[in-house]
What we know:
Elements: H1 15-32, E1 33-37, E2 45-47, E3 51-53, E4 58-62
Antiparallel strand pairs: 1-4, 2-3
Binding site for heme: 12
Cofactor: heme
Amino acid sequence: MFKPFGTGARACIGRQFALHEAVLVLGLLLRRYELRPDPGYRLRVAERLTLMPEGLRVWLERRG
C-alpha cells in the first residue's frame, strides 16, 4: 500500500503542513474556477480501493 508520508518513527514531519497547503490550493481553485465535466461523458466506474469514475475529463472555467 502506498503511504506518501511514511509511517512510524521515520514519518515525514511536514505531513500536516503539506496537507494544509493542499486544502488551501484546492479552496483557491474552487473559488476562482468553475469545474465543468465533459457533457458527453457516460459514467463508467472503476473498482479499486474506492469507486472512481473512469475516463472523466473536467475543464476549469474562470469565474466571472
